[in-house]
Design a protein that fits this description.
By secondary structure, this protein is of the alpha/beta class. Helix content is 33%, strand content 25%.
Length: 409
């Protein structure tokens, strides 16, 4: 039986790894240690599992004592490289949440450490396991629309989910690298995966239209704000049991406030972005991310040599809530039209989390859709966001090779 330790016991680490491995996959793997800079939060996470899992005050000591096969990294993005590198040097394989890291320098550290250690890093791109994206991959892989010439790709975050990034640690570029790295890495990985190609050049524009307007700020945080009854974005961190246990009740220990005001000068990431991407085989992409949409969803169009494929997924209310319609239409140059309705699967992120975790823990005999993702996949996905950040800052087109992350990119 493989053994695992977890570093970072926020909601993602707790819900996606700690709880399911401790309960649903206890016959396949065992969590032998947990570490978080906030011991109280680590203890709260372990309590949620109902299992007897050791909590450590020192990460390196945890590795020394438990000697795990794998380290699962779910800390804030900017800290990924630190724990990945230390884990690799200790002789452990690593499972890391996306994005693998946030800057070219941090990626270079990870790639070098992996190369020298002989160990491996798995990047957890759960979107690859969503049933509608699996279907798109199959259709492109079969050549139904021929060679893909262009892609129009729009991702919409509603005013609940989108706003959440601007009250949490993600709101500062030094922590998340911006939504183009933290969030869009999912989307850029899907592009790389769909096209089976590598990005070559990026040109981007972005702005902050809704969040970070300090003239509207009435309080440092939502809790205790005098405008809470009239503010569209008011969020009560004490109402959700998980947020209350892992964040609100751990504030004194962690120093982290999860419900900061959305109208703060501290916010320095964009809420509206537009990115153009050119791929090595010639495909061109127009991508946009909106973090303040009336509804949540995605619209993706593929124009190919044999036809056109249009995909639409709409979440009708709240964060991942309400009804969802996933529709796929293929228009062939011959005049044929095929419409598919892809049902929503149960479970976190449309059932993708548990499917991905099963593959990570148990492996499988074959991987026909190439869903497993490694360091290179994680690097290529984030490289688009990093290049886009440079493009916006310097107002120019940026070559992926300029990032000089490792030879061959």
């Amino acid at each position: 039986m493989k053994t695992y330790v977890l570093v970072g016991t926020g909601s993602r680490g707790t819900q996606a790894y700690l709880v399911p491995i401790s309960k649903d996959f206890k016959e396949n793997g065992k969590i032998v240690g947990v570490y978080d800079t906030s011991r109280k939060r680590a203890e709260a996470a372990v309590k949620i599992t109902g299992c007897d899992i050791p909590v450590f005050d020192d990460f390196d000591k945890m590795l020394e004592v438990t000697k795990p096969d794998y380290v699962i990294v779910t800390v804030p993005d900017c800290e990924h490289d630190e724990y990945i590198v230390r884990s690799l040097k200790s002789g452990c394989d690593v499972i890391s949440e996306k994005p693998l890291s946030t800057t070219p320098e941090k990626f270079r550290r990870i790639c070098e450490a992996e190369k020298n250690s002989g160990k491996s890093v798995t990047t957890t791109f759960n979107c690859r396991y969503m049933n509608h994206f699996e279907k798109i991959k199959e259709i492109i892989q079969r050549g139904e629309i021929g060679k893909v010439f262009s892609v129009h790709y729009e991702w919409l975050l509603d005013r609940d989910h989108g706003a959440s990034y601007f009250r949490r640690w993600h709101r500062e570029r030094k922590n998340s690298g911006s939504l183009l790295i933290h969030k869009s890495t999912h989307h850029f990985d899907l592009l790389n995966w769909f096209l089976e190609d590598e990005p070559e050049e990026v040109n981007a524009f972005g702005n902050n239209f809704v969040y970070g307007k300090s003239e509207n700020m009435k309080n440092v945080r939502c809790l205790g704000c005098p405008e809470k009854d009239s503010c569209e974005f008011f969020y009560d961190v004490t109402k959700d049991p998980l947020d209350k246990a892992l964040y609100y009740e751990c504030e004194e220990d962690s120093g982290y406030i999860r419900d900061k005001c959305l109208f703060s000068d501290e916010i320095d990431i964009e809420d509206t972005v537009s990115v153009n991407i050119k791929y090595k085989k010639g495909t061109v992409v127009s991508y946009s991310l909106t973090a303040h949409s009336p509804y949540e969803g995605a619209k993706i169009v593929f124009n190919g040599s044999l036809g056109r494929m249009e995909f639409c997924a709409v979440h009708s209310g709240g964060m991942y809530g309400g009804s969802e319609s996933n529709e796929l239409v293929i228009y062939k140059n011959s005049g044929e039209c095929k419409k598919l309705t892809i049902p929503k699967e149960d479970g976190a992120h449309g059932g993708a989390d548990i499917k991905m975790l099963d593959v990570i823990l148990n492996g499988r005999d074959s991987d026909p859709l190439s869903q497993s993702a490694d360091t290179r996949d994680g690097t290529l996905a984030a490289s688009i966001g990093m290049a886009a950040n440079v493009s916006m800052k310097e107002n120019r087109r940026v070559g992926i090779s300029e990032l000089m992350i490792y030879e061959g990119m």
